[in-house]
Amino acid sequence: MSTLVILGAQWGDEGKGKITDYLAETSEVVVRFQGGNNAGHTVEVGEKQYKLHLIPSGVIYGDKLNIIGNGVVLDPLAFFEEVKYLRELGLSVSEKNLFISDRANVIMPYHKVLDALKEKARGKNDIGTTGKGIGPAYTDKVERSGIRVCDLLHPVSLKEKITQNLLEKNKYIVNVLGGEPMDIEGVYNTYLELGEMLRPYVRDTSVIIYNEIRNKKKVLFEGAQGMLLDIDYGTYPFVTSSNTTAGGVPSGSGIGPNMIEKAVGVTKAYTTRVGKGPFPTELEDETGTWIREQGHEYGTTTGRSRRCGWLDLVIVKTSIRVSGLTSLVLTKIDTLAGLPKIKICVGYRLNGEVIDFVPASLEDLALCEPIYEEFDGWDDSVQTAKTYDEMHPNAKKYIERIEELMDIKCSIISVGPRRDQTFKKDSL
Ligand code: GDP
Ligand code: IMO
Ligand code: MG
User: Fold this and answer.
1) Is the pTM of this model over 0.85?
2) Residue nearest to ligand 2 atom 6, measured at CA
3) Ligand 1 centroid from CA 5, angstroms
4) Beta strand pairing call for 65-68 and 98-101
């Protein structure tokens, strides 16, 4: 394996950060290719806990090259805050082990204002975004009015671009959304300065990633969010604004699709979702609450409670198809320990028919009734298992039934948050 993509196979928070860290040990480069600081990846190593939002999880090892690719939307303020936080935790983070694409679009202060005001304007139909300016930044990218990292390095044209953006956006902010206008000169001065601070990190990262792969270096692509938050294949409009599926890797890092060898789908042993939108297997009862407490299901980025429900294999199957997954990584098996019975959704019943894909229309998805298989539970001995053979037999039955139904193997099993609570089961 020289290139491997790590994706969320559900609605995010599957443990991508933990698995990236685990696999980074034997890799040389870790690349983020989409999303921004809406992500929250928690990695535990021994007694230490690291919460990453924008910087690739490879940074925890001092000797990996970390790349923020062109498909990411970069908030420079959030970036420097994260660098400071990681340095305070004793990590070395500098232009020696971290590069930023000159083509990445910048999250500007007006994107954060627009994110908040648009959510307010949506009223009861709000998406429940993280409020980090992600949607408005990607909107400008596609609309071709975005400011890229390379633009921050050119004072004259930067002033023109910020002026043009704010003359237009201030009207919209004030007259349509009822907000306060933003000061053009102030934004310009701040972002010119931030550009100078970013300069040492800025590279044409496509060239670097391409050369690293050609030189047989092991490169990991660390996904953010999950398949059902994908702008095309997620539960639109309750999604994020980027391609969270494997298709986002080539466009978001500047390499050809033929350079991607493998893609793993990180899957929780149950399902969670933060924010609004449909969730067929949601448990709005004491079992859902119990899972939330056992699994500490509170958002890393916003601190919001995560909605919890049974594992939904219709979703996982869709992920396997859309991203061409080569294996699954199953996390949080330990969280379910103690439940007498555990369910898995193996299909949806829609208008009298059984389907195994996620319908495009949310009206149809709302009508889908999950079809369940029930399993006997296991105890917390799973937390200390060091190999697959050491696992409780009921947990093994659960895992093997998933493999059988999905016709794909679980390459890695995770039985706790720490790096050492992880083992390989099959090939990637
Ligand atoms: P990500 O966004 O996909 O990286 O996932 P998050 O970090 O937001 O959420 C996953 C949470 O579960 C983190 O707090 C991890 O430390 C934790 N975690 C990961 N794998 C396991 C596991 O197998 N068992 C338990 N109990 N916690 C885990
Ligand atoms: P990681 O990488 C879970 C959700 C938000 C909201 C929707 C749109 O930690 O798995 P946005 O701010 O992106 O416009 O919000 O997407 N969301 C996430 N949910 N994990 C994430 O990232 C998420 N990033 C965004 O809650 O519903
Ligand atoms: Mg997360």
Assistant:
1) yes
2) 129
3) 18
4) parallel
